[in-house]
Design goal:
alpha+beta; 4 strands; about 15% strand
């Protein structure tokens, strides 16, 4: 729907669409509540990015929501302020090469949440 509307308006090739969600509180799955463990329901969230110059496909990389702002800056050609945490996903989106680990997860209680990056 969103992509179709961007096509109709003639602005798809100059628009980045990012869709994601929170991972919720597990709702008693595995008799647990809240986000304090590394079970599937507490670490995986959807992340879909549609950007000009990015081919469709699935990228399997460890990323965090904190990586989205530097990614948006890179995709828009803007400088990322030095005070911003996280690492841009732009290079990962434009190639099949995986990012090297950097201790991801340090922003989330020293855990390593992983997200699946899916591109339409």
């Amino acid at each position: 729907m969103v992509i179709d509307a961007l096509e109709r308006l003639g602005i798809r090739e100059e628009t980045v669409v990012i869709w994601t969600a929170d991972h919720g509180d597990q709702q008693w799955e595995h008799a647990m509540f809240l986000k304090f463990n590394m079970r599937e329901a507490s670490v995986h969230v959807p992340l879909v990015i549609d950007a000009p110059g990015v081919s469709s496909g699935i990228r399997l990389d460890l990323v965090e929501h904190i990586d989205l702002f530097p990614t948006i800056c890179d995709l828009m050609g803007a400088d990322t302020p030095d005070s911003v945490q996280g690492r841009s996903l732009a290079a990962c989106l434009k190639s099949e090469k995986r990012r090297s680990p950097d201790g991801s997860g340090k922003h989330y209680w020293n855990l390593v949440p992983s997200y699946r990056i899916s591109l339409p």
